[in-house]
Amino acid sequence: MDEVDLLYQEVILDHNKNPRNFGELDDATHQAVGHNPLCGDHVEIFLKVNDGKVEDVKFKGVGCAISKASASIMTTVLKGKTLDEVKDLFQRFHNVLTSKAEEPVNTEELGKLAVFAGVREFPVRVKCATLAWHTLIEAIEKKNSVLTVE
Length: 150
Ligand code: ZN
Known about the structure:
- There is one protein chain.
- This protein has helices at 3-7, 10-17, 65-77, 83-97, 107-110, 123-142; strands spanning 30-36, 41-50, 53-62, 144-148.
- The chain is α+β, with helices and mostly antiparallel strands.
- The chain has one domain: Sufe protein. Chain: A (Alpha-Beta Complex).
- Strands 3-2-1-4 form a 4-stranded mixed β-sheet, with helices on one face.
- Helix 3 (65-77) crosses helix 6 (123-142).
- Residues 36, 39, 41, 63-64, 66-67, 128 line the site of zinc ion.
C-alpha cells in the first residue's frame, strides 16, 4: 500500500471531517494543550474524571487529518475507563506505532485504534497520531499544562 492508502483510510477521513466530541468541557477536571511543531498540529484536551474514571472527554484543535482523527477516535474509546486503563491503552497504542512495520499488530487489543497501525511506516507521522494521547496523559499527570511534542 502507498502512503495515501495507508494513512487516509475511510474511517480516518470520516473522523477528520466529522470529529466526535469536538468542543470544550465546561466542567473539565483536567486539561492540557499539545503542539506538534513538525506538522503544525495543535490540540486541546478537556477531561472530566469522576471517581477515578473518565466521565467525559472532548477536544479542540487544528491539524492534519491524522492528528484530528486520532483525537476524535481517542475520545470515543475513553469513557468509563480508569486512568490506569487509559495509560495502559496509550502504552499499547504507542508500542504499535513505534514498532517495526513487519511486526504483527494485535488489532483485537487495539480495537478502533488499530486503524492507525499503518502510520508506523511513516515515522514523521507518528507524532501526529500520538499527539492527542500525549496531551491526554499530560492532562492526567499535571492537570493543566501546555505540551510541545519534540
Ligand atoms: Zn500532523
